[in-house]
Amino acid sequence: MSEEIVKIKGGAAGLQLSFAPQADFGAIEAELRRRLESGSGFFLRGTLVLLPPDVLQDNERTALQKMFHKYGLICRVARSEAKTAVKTVKKQPEQQKQAAPPQPAVQEMVVVNRTLRGGQEIKTPSSVLVCGNVNPGAQIIAGGSIDIRGTCRGLVHAGAYGDTSAFVIADHLMPTQIRIADIIARSPDKQEKTERAERASLKDGKIVIEPIER
Fold this sequence. Notes:
- This protein has 214 residues and is an alpha/beta fold.
- The chain has 2 domains: 6-80; 109-212, Pectate Lyase C-like (3 Solenoid), CATH 2.160.20.
- Helices cover 18% and strands 34% of the residues.
- It contains 4 helices and 15 strands.
- The chain has helices at residues 25-37, 58-70, 81-87, 93-98; strands spanning 6-10, 15-19, 48-51, 74-77, 109-112, 121-124, 127-130, 139-142, 146-152, 155-158, 168-173, 177-180, 183-185, 197-203, 206-212.
- The chain has a 6-stranded mixed sheet, with no helix packed on it.
- Helix 1 links the parallel strand 2 (15-19) and strand 3 (48-51).
- Helix 1 (25-37) runs parallel beside helix 2 (58-70).
- The longest helix has 13 residues, at 25-37.
- The chain is elongated.
């Protein structure tokens, strides 16, 4: 199949999935499992993943939700705007008093659709996805993991609140300083760009950097 089976789009709340019109569920499930097992940087632990509405059968949605849950992700079905509009009913004043208060939205991941320049900082208890570069002098401090779709030359601190399972991924990982939980490492003075993305994680109490497939 020439068309990409699964497409992923980052948003303010998480990741929106869409599927090729002609793809059957077996192919969709296999492609998602392949990406999860390869450690794809899109699927950070704790990320909210939104499935397209009115595409999958109930048993298919359940199967995907269980698979994402196994890898520590949150999987829900995106709201259908058309259905929401049809079901909207004007409430009487008494009904409004008895209605349960809406629950606040939980942000599992911060998505930054720009390059972070020197002096700019992102600080959050969530995971962070940057669609751009992190320039020298910029820094990211995240309670979860960090994925940079570009070159990282700034300071990055994943697992800032003690999460030793957090990690940092970048297309070109060349930070001035990298921290995971309470462990600190610095890049060598001379470092060249690699052809493959890299992942930094904790192993035996040390920060280890290894190439990965996106």
